[in-house]
Amino acid sequence: MHHLDEGYIKYRIHWNSQLPIHPMFAETVKLLNIWRTEMYHRHWIGYYPKLKVGFGNISMRTPSNEGKFIISGTQTGHLSQLALPEYALVTNYDIEANELWCEGATKASSESLTHAAIYELNEDYQAVIHIHCKEMWLRLLHKVPTTSANVPYGTPEMAYEIQRLYRESDLAECKIVAMAGHEDGLIAFGKSLEEATKVLFQYAQ
User: Fold this and answer.
1) Tell me: the pLDDT tens digits for 81-102?
2) In b/e form, how buried is each residue of 9-42, taking b as 16+ CB within 10 angstroms?
3) What kind and span of H or E run contains 1?
4) What are the angstrom distances between the C-alpha of 171 and each of 10, 28, 47, 100, 121?
5) What integer is the mean pLDDT of 116-127?
6) Which of 26, 126, 142, 163 pairs with 148 at a CA distance of 20 to 30 A?
């Protein structure tokens, strides 16, 4: 049974909808879309019709690599293709205060703080992909680094849980997390979108 709050933003958002993503990020979004489309076709990013909410998201650091990142917007899972207006630029965040600042026509994904926490782990990490896949999730639960079942998605607690797993498990090597309290949820990351995707494909075998 999927949680009824699936896909909804839990952080306090400071959203500048009047400042669209700059065209200088068009190449980054183009690259994100290549892999986001692959996730969509595999039904790893998509939409739950009964709940009327989307699931899955994808992000990449900005070329300047100064803490900012571009992430697919909240409630865009039903779209087969995304463009600049469906992405948000995260310009700042405060995990402890549960706050996030973003720009663009769409609000940043509900999982943005979790993505931010992963980028904090290592400056070499350039991409994060969050998918839903029941078969893979059931198979990997407690076989790969797994978050506590009582930690909800999209919260500071989840961000801290990811960081705890990085310290206490082999997360740095396997680069994938199973989310016990977020049904079907998996997160992969890497030094590039290609590497993050390769991690998912490897565990999908």
Assistant:
1) 999 999 999 999 999 999 999 9
2) bbbebebeeeebbeeebeebbebbbebbebbbee
3) none
4) 25, 26, 28, 25, 11
5) 96
6) 126
Rounded Cα distance between 98 and 3, Å, is 21
Tell me: pLDDT of 4 over 60. Answer: no
Dist CA 114 CA 86 (whole Å): 19
User: Would you say the pTM of this structure is higher than 0.85?
Assistant: yes
Element (H, E) at 180: none
Give yes or no for a contact between 103 and 125, defined as CB atoms under 8 angstroms apart. Answer: no
Measure the CA–CA gap between 158 and 180, rounded to whole angstroms.
11
Count of other CB atoms within 10 angstroms of residue 81: 9
Ramachandran area for residue 76 (φ above 0: left; ψ -120 to 50: alpha; else beta): alpha
Q: Using alpha carbons, select from 22, 191, 194 the residue that is nearest to residue 105.
A: 22
Which among 137, 204, 199 is positioned nearest to 174, based on CA atoms? 199
Tokens of 135: 């078969």
Spatial separation of the C-alpha atoms in residues 110 and 73, rounded to whole Å: 8
Nearest to 157 by CA among 114, 120, 127: 114
Domains of the chain in sequence order: 12-204 (3.40.225.10)
